[in-house]
Input
Amino acid sequence: MTSFHNVNASRFRCQLMFGIRVLVAALSLSFGSIALADMGARQDEAAYLARSGDYDAALAILAELRGEYPDEVGPLYDEIVILVWAGYSERALATADVLVSDNTPAWVAVAAGKAARNLQRFDTAIAWYDSATRNDPANLDARLGLAMALADAGRAADARAALKLTPPTVQETTPVLLTSAYLFQREGMYIPAVNEYDRILAMNPNQPEALQGKTYALQALMLPAEALKMAQANPGLMT
Output
């Protein structure tokens, strides 16, 4: 027959072990929270450096974080975006290869798509932008990137169809009109492209991309005098 003393001792041991497990769990959560807070602070530092133009310093921080926190995707996402900002398209795309596109946030997929476009890997760009539009249908950068990548790949009808899927509320805005002009130029349709640039310049006479695009379109239309006049009126517009 078990004595009262033995029962109490056994109960005490159980309570002690439970208390230890709770303490260990609490400490683990505490240390985990501290670690994640540290990671977040260093990510913020990397973002600040990148926005200041110090890309290599930002990337060094993110490389350290990826080594210290291999299971966290945040530093990986930031690294891809900053690699694109820095013009390291090959590295950005190679880094993005470890991701599953359908599970990747739209803002990261857009960066990967831009890297692929920069490298003229248009099918890869289309895949990334398409993933971004599925994950975030309201993401305008994804929609416009998809349209341009399709145009780059020679799929003019698909490009125009993708552009038409932008919300009606933004179809008269500068980013959409610039993309429309780009699609026309990729098809060699320079007069409609000039019309789109003129619509932008009617809203903002100094919009640099519209000024430059119109100048190139006028050159393509064999109107060098008009193109030269625009270039002279806007110093620094052309090389």
Observations:
- The chain has twelve helices and no strands.
- Residues 4-51 form the longest helix (48 residues).
